[in-house]
Amino acid sequence: MITVAILTLSDKGSKGERKDLSGPLIQEMLKGINAEIKRYEILPDEKETVKEKLIQYSNEVDLILTTGGTGLSPRDITPDATLEIIDRQVPGIAEAMRMEGLKKTNRAMLSRAVAGVKGKTLIINLPGSPKAVQENLTVILDALPHAIEKIKGDPTECASG
């Protein structure tokens, strides 16, 4: 069982001015990998608040998925907050998401999403729109259980055959 925290980052969502569609979609998609949602929260795009939650949840769960705040607008701080607290990056995850997104829109290259490890927790930034969340999470979903096993110290070989 993979324990998960979902953080939706939206100024309007945190004030109740916009319904969060991406967080519930992530919950639904995770049913296919035997995941248990331990935390779900909607936060404003405030870097220090996001950093505090990422650090807190990295001591509680195996996987943190953020949604929102990965673009180029001045309030998009999710990748910046993530980079400041992770121990090491996992660039292939973000690269795979951008590559898949580029098949659908050239705007995918504008994503600043990152992925990395804090302690024994994998943190992945997803875009904010439900459509982009579905496309991005679909690409990486099957690899997540293996990634988390490795982060937790599974000594088995990754290669098959």
Question: What does this 3D model show about the protein?
Answer:
This protein is an alpha/beta fold. It has one domain (about 1-150): MoaB/Mog-like domain (Molybdenum Cofactor Biosythetic Enzyme, Chain A, 3-Layer(aba) Sandwich). Helix content is about 40%, strand content about 20%. A 6-stranded mixed β-sheet has the order 2-1-3-6-5-4, with helices on both faces. Strand 5 (about 115-120) and strand 6 form a beta hairpin. Helix 5 (about 90-100) crosses helix 6 (about 130-140). The mean pLDDT is about 95.
Global shape: globular
Count of discrete structural domains: 1
Low-confidence parts = none
Helical coverage, percent range: 25-40%
Terminal Cα separation, in Å? 26 Å
Order of helices and strands: EHHEHEHEHEEHH
- Write the CATH homologous superfamily: MoaB/Mog-like domain
What oligomeric assembly is this protein in? single chain
CATH topology: Molybdenum Cofactor Biosythetic Enzyme, Chain A
Number of strands: 6
Measured by DSSP, the beta-strand proportion falls in 15-25%
Given helix and strand content, the structural type is alpha/beta
